[in-house]
Amino acid sequence: MKSPSSAGWVLYDDSCGFCRRWVPFWRGTLAKRGLSIARLQEEWVRQALQLPPDELIQDLRLLLEDGRRFCGADVYRHAMKRIWWAWPVYVLSIAPVLRNAFDWSYRTFAVNRYRISHQCGIPGGQISREPPRQQR
Prior knowledge:
Elements: E1 8-12, H1 17-25, H2 27-31, E2 35-39, H3 43-49, H4 53-56, E3 61-64, E4 69-71, H5 73-80, H6 87-94, H7 96-119
Parallel strand pairs: 1-2
Antiparallel strand pairs: 1-3, 3-4
Helix pairs in contact: 5-6
């Protein structure tokens, strides 16, 4: 499933056009931090997370090799904390009042992501049965 050099997987909803376009765009940046990407619709992801299908795709997720899991805005925080130029945004995202604003912004976008993708003309993907591949 994962190579020993992988610290974890950022898991995204491939049926969301926005997610399908932007998460792979950041593949190289994430890979430099030991994070690969995979679609939430992949069979190995469903087996690893053991979540009901509708709950599985509600949020961006992060699965680390050590078994820790993050979802939603916390996935962004985990990644930003490891990217030097994103670190200032990370600090703002954990500040007491701004944390709530960051979480609210993420949740509002997540709930409306299909509508946003449609309005922007960004098509979603299809469910994939491909095995995960380690990104280098």
